[in-house]
Automatic annotation (TrEMBL):
One of its GO terms (biological process) is chloride ion homeostasis. It catalyses: K(+)(in) + chloride(in) = K(+)(out) + chloride(out). This is Solute carrier family 12 member 6. It comes from Oncorhynchus mykiss (Rainbow trout). Residues 1-10 have a biased composition (Polar residues).
Amino acid sequence: MASVRFTVTPTKAEDLPGLSDTSPDISSRSSGRGHVRFGSRESVNRSEPLSEGSGGLTTTGENETPDRTNTDQGDGNAKMSNVYINNSHGVDDDDFYDRNLALFEEEMDTRPKVSSLLNRLANYTNLTQGAREHEEAESIGEKRKSPQMGTFMGVYLPCLQNIFGVILFLRLTWVVGTAGVLQALCIVFICCCCTLLTAISMSAIATNGVVPAGGSYFMISRSLGPEFGGAVGLCFYLGTTFAGAMYILGAIEILLMYIAPWAAIFVSGSPDGEGAAMLNNMRVYGSIFLLLMALLVFVGVKYVNKLASVFLACVIISILSIYTGALVSAFRNGTVPSTFDLSLPSSEATTTLWLQFCEGPDLNASCDYYFNLSNISEIPGIPGLSSGVITGTFSNIWSVYLSKGDVLEKGSLPSPRPVHPPTNRLPYVFADITTSFTLLVGIFFPSVTGIMAGSNRSGDLKDAQRSIPIGTIMAILTTSLVYLSSVVLFGACIEGVVLRDKFGDSVKGNLVVGTLSWPSPWVIVIGSFFSTCGAGLQSLTGAPRLLQAIAKDNIIPFLRVFGHGKANGEPTWALLLTALIAELGILIASLDLVAPILSMFFLMCYLFVNLACALQTLLRTPNWRPRFSYYHWTLSFLGMIICLALMFISSWYYAIVAIVIAGMIYKYIEYHGAEKEWGDGIRGLSLSAARYALLRLEEGPPHTKNWRPQLLVLLKLDEDAYVKSPRLLTFASQLKAGKGLTIVGTVITGNYLHSYGEALAAEQTLKHQMDKEKVKGFCQCIVANKAREGISHMIQSSGLGGMRHNTVVMGWPLAWRQSEDPQSWKTFINTVRVTTAAHLALLVPKNISLFPGNSEPCAEGYIDVWWIVHDGGMLMLLPFLLRQHKVWRKCAMRIFTVAQMEDNSIQMKKDLATFLYHLRIEADVEVVEMHNSDISAYTYERTLMMEQRSQMLRQMRLSKSDREKEVRRPQQVCLFHSSVSIRADGGMSASENRRVHMTWTKEKALQYRATHSGCSTPEGFRDMLSIRPDHSNVRRMHTAVKLNEVIVNKSHDARLVLLNMPGPPRNPAGDENYMEFLEVLTEGLERVLLVRGGGSEVITIYS
């Protein structure tokens, strides 16, 4: 019988028959195009080459005898492993290889037996080590007037109005009297430096492009990303809201203490209850004021804006009256009229003052101990600039901190120490709170806030990038000069005891700073009242708009409702929420307790403004081109440090609460917020950090202690673009537990130019499936003409620098025996070879559909490890990693190893137990002895059936190829005859003769089919029946059968079995037999994980 000898030319491996097309476990759907296969058996003349696709084949003549030529694939090994080779061709090398480990014999030089490894690890000291978008305008289509406001009206004056506030009139004198001039100057200087440095950073950000509505929130969010932007934006919103509450409380304090004390609703019958009654009055009147102001803002912001100029005028007039009064005090008698008759009592009668301290008008009446031991004298409350009160021995330059309940007294005069402290029923002035430097910082800082007023009006400015820096910095310098000079004037003009009198009890209940003003204290009282009301209205106007801007960005889902408002855009719902939060501040009812709260929120906002500027400057992002050039990253970092220090100096517990609130908002946005790409600095910082880390990783291979599986998961998509084996991702997530690198890849067969859209859709499918399975990682889709090429490219090129995969996870080709197309399992084997060549580990879960999901924890059972050959310790490490996940946590670990006849199994068990002890891995150890036994008839028959089946499938595939060719060839003949041109004499040209000679005719096709009918002829059957199994295949089958028997016997009830995966044969002719060996090896096991190490140690006994 004639035969054809195939001699494969050394072209690409993809051109070999049966090694192309797609793999069912890896690539995506096949393109459906036909592939060239080698033709059927037929004698072919050398002058008549085969039809298309047959290049690289040579044939023998009809009379030549059959010859079986082995194909050498260039691995230097010429061992005969072809399925046609019978036993006579094999070499009896049982003495060289263990009969029970024949399946692994080709790798014994690189993957030693466990017994050999344990022998070498005598003292366990010689293990190898280390082996979006552009911003859209929110008011599209609205007709707006062209911005005409300049620096003075648009930035400078609004900043002045927002910075000057209630603290200047109500608390600055008390701060100076308590802290002294030097420490007061220090407090003011630190706070002003904080705002000045923040203003410099803000100017750089504000001039780096257009700043729409949202002001500081917009700047921070676009510079630091939605997480930081949302967290700091909400903190700034809360700070502005509590500022409104603070201003309202200040206005109520001025009203009830200095304008209309008779309007108090709650009046205490005893001096001890006056404080509580005052707090209740503050709560009631504060709630009423808040309601009225909220209604005014709701009716229309235009009324608030019209009143703004009136309120600003009140502030300026009040400040001018203070300076005028200080100058006038230098030329007038500074005595303040006394409330009581201070004349000393005579021997006959008593005075009004006597009645305040004694129980009756009689001279023998019982009097206060402090009063009896003291002399009464009158001193000027406002000595004036020329009095030298600031330079005396006990002058205002030094601090006098008091505890709650202490009596205010002049330090330069001797004071008796009574046995019993004075009580509130006597007309003494007491300290209402315990004071300290840190407390005063927290109370004063709100008086320097308000520097964002100019940036919030950027849309109304003629030249925002010029006006914002100049106007804001000039306003800060002006207010800083006013505060610093006020500290010096107060210390130089007012007596220290009066300065420490917070509520003016010693000056007939007047506002202390009002006693200094000219021409009347009422100028300060009325001016400060209206200025605080105006500041409260500004806060209630700005805070809802800030919340609306955050809500419209849609980064915090539960705030979406506050993005809506009235038809004209007024934030109704945001105003309602702002009023409710401000009411909480009013219920606190103490200006000194509310001030530190809003200080925290403002300081946090300023801190992140400085951080944004420093980050953008250091990263040198291409878009960072601010017109304001007088900034530097060191100034921004200094501003950050001052902000952080002030937070903890003023109130460390409030600082922690504010940071926790911001952190919670940050994490909420990170996990539940909308995805936004604003080109923020945090993204740039992440890129810089990633680049730095990748460059560091490039310095050398990872140490064994740092080794963990960095996975490349190969998936296949079906015809509808769905993932065929999603449980592979589930298994990957259980193995990784969110740590390390995970790359999920698939291959699309086709042309990249035509399949680009398909690749994008596949990538989205992978991302969706990864989110569903909670796999943190990256996805990659490669388009290639053949699946094998795509998989090879992916294995070679995935990852970047030191962040590359070291382990490949792929599925087992399902139903490969029943498939007519051999490409599925051939692609699988090719992937195993590529992985081995790349020195990567390989994990192949078999029966992946039976593996548990993330919500299906395994009951108590065992994870069995069959350690047959040493491959770097992968088999030890994988169960440990799996048991970190909740699904496998209840499973115990058992390790089995195989001992041969010449091994000492008892010593092996001891050595292995010691090895596991040093590895800190808890597992049961068992050594299975495999006795040398003769090859059974079952093994011989199983091998014979395997080879006969391979031969039959080969013949069937050849027959199918013949049928496909027969369908095409008659069409080619017809097309050819229709295209032949006949000459006039009925002949044809020489070229046409040659074309007819090279064309298949019907007779030739019939003859070819009759000669090469394969197993359809009796000769074909006799050929198959005469096959004798190859000796090496019998030995391998013997190993697979015996190991399978032992594994099934010991691990039939195990939840998971981990097993060394033998490598594919070096000769590709035995690939189909290799698949059969693996099937036999894992037969009868429910869940199997085949493991191949990458050639390096992955686990160590050292710390």
